[in-house]
Amino acid sequence: NAGVTQTPKFRVLKTGQSMTLLCAQDMNHEYMYWYRQDPGMGLRLIHYSVGEGTTAKGEVPDGYNVSRLKKQNFLLGLESAAPSQTSVYFCASSYTSGGAYGYEQYFGPGTRLTVT
Amino acid sequence: DQQVKQNSPSLSVQEGRISILNCDYTNSMFDYFLWYKKYPAEGPTFLISISSIKDKNEDGRFTVFLNKSAKHLSLHIVPSQPGDSAVYFCAASEGTGNQFYFGTGTSLTVIP
């Protein structure tokens, strides 16, 4: 049972390049999330998904796209990377949402992205 | 605008003593609160939670207190151990909402 895994762990991009971050979970969770963590800002929600085939915007969605074609995978895309997207990206999943039992989120180890 | 705030970026405590980490929030609609612990180069891990129908929740050495009128929650760790040294995040959500709002974290150092 690997939990939540993220690929890649590190990446350096040039401004304008594109890339996709992959998140996979083996806990059969319905809900998946992408966060970014910046110094002094805590974790901020980029996009989330409440089930296979669904996505929704979070707090800071601009410049990112997501897809949830399979229940276990949640992809985060950067179409044209900018230096402001330099951050550590965390994926998370949960069984339910809100205050229902099982709503705590399980996080992956993070992807450190630098855009030059 | 930060809806969840952790005003102490760092805290140092002697081993065996109590650690108290604080968190304030501005949105009175928040009714579920969680604490996460994060080690360097790892993702956050869930520690303990509380809903607004309670004012206290305990799990072993960890207790979370909620003061709804003050929009304040705190995490108590007793006794503190060196392995507790990590960054602690509080997070809040509204009802059955899908979004959790995180604080900026407090780095706890437990001195042996």
Structure characterization notes:
The complex is a heterodimer of chains A (116) and B (112). In chain A, 0% of the residues lie in helices and 49% in strands. Chain A has no helices and eleven strands. In chain A, the strands form two sheets. In chain A, strands 2, 4, 5, 6, 9, 10 and 11 form a seven-stranded mixed beta sheet that branches. In chain A, strands 1-3-8-7 form a four-stranded antiparallel beta sheet, with no helix packed on it. In chain A, β5 and β6 form a beta hairpin. Chain A is globular. Chain B has 112 residues and is mainly β. Helices cover 0% and strands 54% of the residues of chain B. At the A-B interface, β5 and β10 of A face β4, β5, β9 and β10 of B.
- Which sequence of SSEs, written as H and E, runs from N to C of chain A? EEEEEEEEEEE
Mean pLDDT of chain A: 92
Question: How many helical elements of chain B?
Answer: 0
Instruction: Name the overall outline of chain A.
Output: globular
What share of residues of chain B is helical?
A: under 10%
**Main β-sheet of chain B: number of strands, strand sense, barrel status?**
6 strands, mixed
CA-based shape of chain B: globular
Low-pLDDT stretches of chain B: none
How do you describe this structure in short?
By secondary structure, chain A is mostly beta strands. Chain A is 0% helix and 49% strand. Chain A is built from no helices and eleven strands.
What are the key terms here?
heterodimer, A: 116 residues, mainly beta, 7-stranded mixed sheet, 4-stranded antiparallel sheet, 11 strands, B: 112 residues, 5-stranded antiparallel sheet
Topology readout:
The complex is a heterodimer of chains A (116) and B (112).
Chain A: E1 4-7, E2 10-13, E3 19-25, E4 31-38, E5 42-49, E6 56-57, E7 65-67, E8 73-78, E9 87-94, E10 106-107, E11 111-115
Parallel strand pairs in A: 2-11
Antiparallel strand pairs in A: 1-3, 3-8, 4-5, 4-9, 5-6, 7-8, 9-10, 9-11
Chain B: E1 4-5, E2 10-14, E3 19-25, E4 32-38, E5 45-51, E6 56-59, E7 62-67, E8 72-77, E9 86-93, E10 101-102, E11 106-111
Parallel strand pairs in B: 2-11
Antiparallel strand pairs in B: 1-3, 3-8, 4-5, 4-9, 6-7, 7-8, 9-10, 9-11
